[in-house]
Known about the structure:
Helices cover 0% and strands 49% of the residues. It is an all-beta fold. It has two domains: 35-311, Methylamine Dehydrogenase, Chain H, CATH 2.130.10; 316-418, Immunoglobulin-like (Sandwich), CATH 2.60.40.2550. The strands form nine sheets. It has a five-stranded antiparallel beta sheet with strand order 1-30-35-32-31, with no helix packed on it. A hairpin with a 5-residue loop joins β27 and β28. It is globular and about 65 Å long. 46% of the residues are buried.
Amino acid sequence: MKNSSIIRNCSKIIFFTFLLSCSSLFTQWVSQTTPSGFNIFSSSFPSSQTGYACGYGNLILKTTNGGIGWSDISLPGTGPVLNSVWFLNDNTGFIASTIDSLLYTTNGGSSWIRHFYTGIDPMRLFFINSQTGWVTSNKLYKTTNAGLNWFVISNTPAEDIYFINENTGWKTTYSGGSSTVHNTTDGGLSWSPILVTSNFRVVYAVKFLDENTGWVSGYREYIASTTNGGVNWTVQRDIGNSNGLYAIEFINPLTGYAAGDAGTVLTTTNGGSIWIQSQLPGGARFEEIDFINQSTGWVVGGFGKIYKTTNSGLTPVENISETATSFSLSQNYPNPFNPSTKIDFSVPASGEGKMKILLSVYDISGRLAAVPVNGELPAGSYRINFDASGFSSGIYFYKLEVTSGNNLLYSEVKKMSLVK
């Protein structure tokens, strides 16, 4: 998922349309304020309140309130890159650093020791339980005693890695514009190729729910799935010369996410047959997605960007009428509200071609707080139920923008009050 040797090009943004007869779904992610603009490469949330993120320039961020506030606990100096972080609990964790070592803390990041020398930069940490874990490098290392000791389990390299139990797992490798996905059934001692890609369909991330059901994502917005353990693969998405997707996550067989270049977050509610695309503001390259339960998750990436969802990232957009005579944005109701409110808007038929609908929410300081709707809709009147469970009390502004190409067709702002 995170390999500094791979050049990840960012190209044009492809807007994906997802329409249903009566409603649509758009992602709702809330921007979280961080104290650093350094790129974030990895995150770990051992509990709903405690989380860590690491990245470029010895960057380490920590939250103890679910991301409402993040503190900078970075290591001194800005030379090393911290590729991956994994915490076994709120206090005990590991970081893979480009000083060719695993770093180790038992006090929530207040201090770190250079715990294990890997020889070549470690890239990706993964634990299946409190005792058993792996770290990738030019070799694959394993621990069976909570990271106190590590040993070489395989002399072959790996980029991303994922296990569903102590024996069954998958890894990705990259070579000259192609990737291979491998499978192990003996804890990493031996590996068998189950998917080989070509023509720069570089696989960055792998995720399996069980021995049969899994997905991979990569460059060209490539997503492929299998339901028989990798014997056969179905390409769900493949857009030439497009964005890279560096993270993929499924919380159940139907609901999943992929994220990557230019603020791209893709969401599916049908196992990947249809992917809904959103572009979160800021243009970050997202590197990792973490869900701690069926509804709460984070996506992290470039420029210190962290976004959170508490509703599985899904905002239903209800089509209340298939016709509209004019653009409009109605006052939310109820107002004041706690914790959710309804927002209605209308978009008439236009000779301008396809229209992009952007509904954004800002706090009193003008900081972008959420993007409930970001995509294309046909003419009609719509309603969303905006959930502000993760927000603080206060005044917020919501803004509707309708564009066609580079032309702004409509813009309006209204005020709403959240009282908790």
